[in-house]
Amino acid sequence: MPRKKALLIGINYTGSKHQLNGCINDSINMRNYLVQDRGFSPDQRDMVMLSDLPQNRGTPFEPTGANMMAAFQWLVTGNRPGDSVFLSYSGHGGQVRDPDGDRDSGFDDTICPLDFESRGQISSDTLHKVLVSPMLPSARLTILFDCCHSGSAVELPYVYRPNQYGQVNLVDNIKQGVSLLEGASRLIQGGFNASKIQDAKILLGGAQTFFKSLQHKHDAPTADANGLAEDRFVEDWKSEGKDVWMFSGCADDQTSADTSIGGAATGAMSYAFIKTMRNNPGQSYINVLQSTRQELQNKFKQIPQLSVGGEYDLNQPVSVCFLHLGTPSPPKKVKRKKGDNFYVLT
């Protein structure tokens, strides 16, 4: 019988200057959803939770970089055909200088373990190699990242961009541009310090990507009839053909909200995803993306994203269980463009 495994990570960075409030709640809410609605077992052999609760200090369940990497390995290895694995991460996301020169902004997305200030962040390139590459093509990995700068956090080769230019849509583009301009304005008005200079670099990288999308749309990868466009990476990730699906809380140049809903601290994307799935469990991947966007659009500037490991049918119902998808259609030919590490927290 196929096995279901889940790794749920929530980091509040309690007591630090980077403290968040809703991330541990996100992991607990996700556990409850998977157990109550999706048939996952809460047994520690099948579901591992990492958080910075006091009782986890010094144990394998504290979300340090080393423990997270070990947990990632547990999640994606030892699986058999038909198995389903699920990963959720709620915490800080950042960006580091892109060493490959394949990102228009000049930065790779990252996630931030509890000890990131001393041990470093985990980059999107590393996340792909540790999470996606080891997966059996005949097992399914579903990912939810509720953090800033998470659009391509695991470098999946295809992203849902439903217009012919490979952009999300005109409204999303305008929201991105306004957000970048507002952020830059706040930095300028408040005066610069070393930390703000790093933030400004990210804003400028995001602005660069935004204006390129408006001025050079003919250079962007075209989306197919289903709205899938190939993302640009030096590595040939699309040849792996992995059954991996990822919902992320925002685009690469955006932030995700840590908020309070109904008196409880939560991440906006985690809340919207669980609410959407419980309200209508039979929605397609596109429907879920649209529903989470609608849930957030009047309250937050972030725009949830959907990326996948192959050219799969996004109109099929969302399933955290493996379904045989057949062989992905041959990848389209697209033009590819080329381009000191520091961290940015939002």
Please, could you describe this protein's structure?
- 32% of the residues lie in helices and 18% in strands.
- The protein is globular, with a radius of gyration of 19 Å.
- The C terminus is likely disordered.
The chain-level mean pLDDT equals 78
Number of distinct helices? 8
Largest sheet entry: 8 strands, mixed
Strand line-up in the sheet with most strands = 2-1-3-7-10-13-8-9
N-end to C-end Cα span: 43 Å
Helix content: 25-40%
What is the chain-wise order of helices and strands?
A: EHEHEEEHEHEEHHEEEEHHE
Kindly estimate the percentage of residues that lie in beta strands according to DSSP: 15-25%
Salient structural properties:
alpha/beta; 346 residues; eight-stranded mixed sheet; three-stranded antiparallel sheet; disordered C terminus
Secondary structure layout:
Elements: E1 4-10, H1 23-38, E2 47-51, H2 65-76, E3 84-90, E4 93-97, E5 107-111, H3 116-119, E6 122-123, H4 124-132, E7 140-146, E8 158-160, H5 170-190, H6 194-215, E9 228-230, E10 243-248, E11 258-261, E12 264-267, H7 268-279, H8 285-297, E13 305-308
Helix pairs in contact: 1-7, 5-6, 7-8
Brief rundown of the structure:
This protein is of the alpha/beta class.
